[in-house]
Write a structure and sequence with these properties.
Layout lengths: L13 E5 L19 E3 L4 E5 L13 E6 H4 L1 E2 L2 E2 L1 H15 L5 E4 L7 H14 L3 E5 L13 E7 L4 E5 L1 H8 L6 H8 L18 H11 L2 H8 L7 H9 L1 H11 L22 H15 L1
Parallel strand pairs: 4-7, 4-8, 8-9
Antiparallel strand pairs: 1-3, 2-3, 5-6, 9-10
Helix pairs in contact: 2-10, 5-6, 5-9
Length: about 290
Amino acid sequence: MEGMTALIPNNNSCIWHPSLALTEVRGGASINGKRKNKINIRCGIRLESQSQRPTALVNERRRVFLLDVYPLCYNGNQPRPSAFIDWIRMLFSRVTNKDPIIAVVKIEDAEADDVVATLADQVLKRGLKTVIASPDKDFKQLISENVQLVMPMPEFGRWSFYSLKHYIAQYDSDPSADLSLRCMVGDESDCVPSLKQVAPGFGRKTAVKLLKKHGSLENLLNAAAVRTVGKPYAQDALTKYGDFLRRNLQVLSLRRDVAVNLEEGWCCARDTRQDIVALSKLEGKLKELR
């Protein structure tokens, strides 16, 4: 899926068109000079919207789903196109109702999670809510009153919503501190070392306590630079390894400045009458390509 972005248009008529052609999307604005939105994934499927005039979201349709495609197409390192079909069918039929779905793979020189974060920010600026469909825990840093996650749960065979309420119940902290906390306690999946590796004794308990008081890593480091913020071992770690923590922050932070623009038509209610036909055609094409 390198260099590709998949954007599922949400106009009144969406039809799956099997195609082996790969079309590059730059910023989601136009494709080959035409104002049509197409989806391309490695297996060669293209989704094209052929509606004429998009219908604006009515007040009760306030959510826009952002689908992180890549993790759903793989089982570990092994491609599993059929798994993507199963998850997206369930998303269409049981989760989204008529809510629009924007599916993201990748834009050139940008990671898919950064594209999702950028689009989520643009959705919020339009006064809408967003739901990010992905198993990637990095998206927890985006959770708010207006941003939810919905995660695939293979062990239960369903999608599960994860909201601000769930986050606070699980971590006893605000999601705004999630990124700062991970910078200090580390993240093995992203190869981010913990502060404890260079400053023994500085563990999760200390990090949570300091973040509750100061709110964010940057606030904490700024405070530690001018006054004592904790016990000697914590104070020493923060003043000595500030650059270490800021590097972690740079690695873990999701970008919101990717060159992609949210189009009005992507936020329109989906015509669910086309879902069965679209999924059937996509499934047939994937079987041919196995």
